[in-house]
Design brief:
The protein contains seven helices and five strands. It has 142 residues and is α/β, with parallel strands linked by helices.
Amino acid sequence: MRFWDSSAVVPILVAEPNSRRMASLLRRDRECWVWWTTRTECLSALYRRERGGELKPKQLDAARERLRLFDRAAATIAPSEAVRSRAERLLAAHVLRADDAMQLAAALVAAEENAANLPIVTLDDRLAEAARREGFSVLTGK
């Protein structure tokens, strides 16, 4: 079981340089944890690509269906005061944007505060560094 950041989910939905690596990790991860906004963040990335001409309507539809299936299978950490308070601590301790602090806080909740128990999959360098500093093992595209 791993915690998946939205940056690592997008390459599963559309072809990217890290798509093979992320798909391989997902095949070995029958149970995933995600933060409540992951689906929305992924949709944002998909629609940005469509508006930018990188995705045709049929490709967008296929990617949205893959996202629906992924989201349905993943365990989701819901918004809570526990997540928010952890995110606020993380903002003070690391160079993170608010959304990344929320992702990392959700991972801490999923790990029941024992970061060593739950690897994080991310392609975001700042999030990866903060996660390592919090004690998580981090799986990236490298």
